[in-house]
Every structure is written in C-alpha cells, then in structure tokens.
Write a structure and sequence with these properties.
It is a single chain. The chain is an alpha+beta fold. Helices cover 38% and strands 22% of the residues. The protein contains 11 helices and 14 strands. The strands form 3 sheets. Strands 6, 7, 8, 9, 10 and 11 form a 6-stranded antiparallel β-sheet that branches. Strands 1-2-3-4-5 form a 5-stranded antiparallel β-sheet. A 3-stranded mixed β-sheet has the order 12-14-13, with helices on one face. Strand 9 and strand 10 form a beta hairpin. Helix 8 packs antiparallel against helix 9 and helix 10 runs antiparallel to helix 11.
C-alpha cells in the first residue's frame, strides 16, 4: 500500500511557492491546497510531491518528481523521466523495477492511452515475474497489463539506465534517446488547437451550441493544463481549466463533455450560484458541490443523449471513462434529484472519491 505523507503547512507553503505559476494563481492558492509526498525506491532522493487543490469536488491533483529542491512537473508526457534519467538519479534493481514501470505507465500518455497496469499495483506485482540478465544488465518482466480495457499478458524489457521496451501486447520503445528540458510548462503545448477542437465537437449538438452562447455572454475563458489526469476545474471568475496529457495532440469527445459541464457551471456562477471556499462550513461545501455536480452532469447527459441520436457512440464511450455509466443509465430511466444523487454517490464511492 502506498504510504503518502502529508506535509505540514510550512513545508507545503514552501513547495507551493517554488512551483506556482503566476498566470494561474487559483491552482496554487495555499488556502485551498494540501501537499503530500510519496517516497520512490528507484530515484535517489526523489519523491512524488502532490498538490491537492480543493476548489471543487472532485479535487484537482498536480504531481511532481522532486527532491525538495529540483521539481519536475508530471504533465502527461515523459519529460520528467527524461530529466531525471539524464541526471543519473535512477537506481534500478529486481525489487523496484516493476514500480518504475508502473510509474511510467501510470503517468505517461501513450498510443491513445490504451496501455495500463491493473488498478491495484500490488495485484499486478504479485502476478509478475522479473528476471535479470547479469551480463547485459537488462530486466525481463512478465506482468499482466490492461490493453484496450482487457487484461492481457505483458512482456517488457528495461535496461539498467531506464530504457523501456514493450514487446507485448504492443511493440513500443520509451526513453531510449534522452532529451532533457529544464522547465516543463503547465499549459498544454497545443492549447489553442485543443480548445478549438473541443468547441467544434461540442457545437455538433444543439445543447452544446446553447452552452457555448452562454460562454460568450459571461466572457468565460478556457485554459488547458497538461496533466496525466482528465479533469476540469471552473473558477468563480469564469475561467475553465481543462486537464489532459501534454503528449495528447487532439481533443476528443471526452474534452467536449468536460467543456459541456464546465459551461453549465459557468451559467450557475453567472446566476449567483458560486463555489464555496473549503474553509467554509464543511456541510455547506459538500452540499453545494454535490448539488452543482449533479446539475452539471445532467446537462452533460443531455449532450451525450443528443450525440447518441446522431449516431456518435464516442460520446458514450467517453462517459464510460468518467465512470458515470451507471448514473447515466439511471438518468435515462427517469431518475432525477435525490434519487439520481444516490446513484451518483454510489459511483463516487466506487471511484474512491467520495468525501462524506
């Protein structure tokens, strides 16, 4: 089991101040954020540092590889791995090479995000086999992987200096030619294109067009942050943050749906229904967030249903990746208000993000 350590407020403030972006201060507001740390067994002196931003539920997460002085943001590309492997910080052995592979696959967008470890890394490791060729200093790994949503046998080779070669279920090589980069930006390198594509997909529906008109009235702004997590955050000053891997080059239906529920929240905020601060009464914070969320996802369900009538199953598939299919089916069966909220709560519990 991963042993995360929460940093005290003073250490948290020092870390946040070191990594914050002045262009996006709400993401690094100390009154909204906690910082947690997880030691890594294979990068000498380095840990995962995690900022948990509690502006809204689900919480926003920003992760870094850091030794407390040098910080490498995990943006959904493999840039942080290039940086640390170039520094010679990597120390692999038979006890930690699986964890190294797990970290890479978990954080780096690859080939349509089709390759994953099992949900429980301990389960994956228990079913895995690692052998070391002492002459070449290469680890051969047999481990179950999830490929296109199916559990399949995986075969991977990893060299002592961290080069990864996947032999099965796909043929792919990573970190064979290191290209360090001093700074890893927060903003997605194709931000403008991602925004345009997301708007284009959403505007294929009548509901989406109406939502986009509301954006114009509120003078809302969209920003795209590189992240291994697909997520959205909407601020009370009508800024929409869309989170997606920096290595992913195009928006898909997932981003269009995130934009749909974000625009619904923008309309709520314009009508005076703003996000409460986490420091307010916790019951108020939870009730308002969950109430807003069920309203937002209901509008998103309207969009998905319209896409279905247009013969676009990709929207429904994207909804499945949000783990909201049970909620959507309940909504299609006529459940609303408290009844739908109960199904939504159960989905959050299954996804381990329930805050009650």
């Amino acid at each position: 089991m991963r042993d995360w350590q929460r940093l005290d407020p003073e250490r948290s403030a020092v870390f946040i101040n070191a990594v914050k972006s002045n262009d996006d201060p709400v993401l690094f507001d100390p009154s909204l954020c906690e910082v947690h740390m997880l030691a890594l067994p294979f990068y000498a002196g380095y840990s995962i540092y995690r900022i948990v931003n509690k502006y809204m539920i689900p919480y926003l997460i920003l992760d870094y590889l850091s030794n407390g002085e040098n910080h490498h943001y995990l943006d959904g590309s493999d840039q942080a791995f290039h940086n640390l492997n170039t520094l010679g910080a990597l120390g692999l052995d038979e006890s930690n090479v699986l964890s190294y592979l797990d970290l890479y696959i978990s954080y780096v967008y690859e080939r349509g995000h089709s390759l994953h470890f099992l949900v429980d890394p301990e389960q994956s490791h228990a079913q895995s086999k690692v052998t070391l060729d002492a002459q070449t200093r290469t680890y051969s790994i047999e481990t179950p992987l999830i490929y296109h949503d199916n559990t399949v046998p995986g075969a991977v080779k990893i060299t002592q200096d961290g080069k990864i070669t996947v032999l099965s279920p796909v043929n792919a090589s990573f970190l064979h030619e290191l290209k360090p980069q001093r700074d890893i930006p927060y903003r997605h390198p194709l931000e403008k294109q991602i925004i345009e594509q997301s708007i284009s997909i959403l505007s294929e529906t009548d509901i989406g067009q109406n939502l986009l008109k509301g954006m114009e009235k509120c003078n809302a702004e969209i920003r795209v942050i590189g992240s291994p997590n697909y997520h959205g955050l909407i601020t009370n000053d009508c800024v929409i943050y869309m989170m997606m891997p920096a290595a992913e080059q195009n928006a898909k239906y997932f981003q269009a749906l995130v934009l749909a529920y974000a625009l619904r929240d923008i309309r709520q905020i314009a009508d005076g229904y703003a996000h409460p601060h986490i420091a307010a009464d916790m019951e108020i914070f939870l009730n308002i967030n969950y109430g807003k969320n069920i309203d937002m996802i209901s509008v998103m369900f309207d969009v998905v249903a319209e896409f279905e009538t247009k013969g676009a199953p990709e929207a429904l598939q994207a909804l499945g990746k949000m783990n909201l299919m049970e909620v959507y089916n309940a909504w299609k069966n006529g459940l609303r208000n408290e009844a739908l909220m109960d199904v939504y709560f159960e989905a959050l519990r299954k996804d381990d993000i329930m805050k009650r």
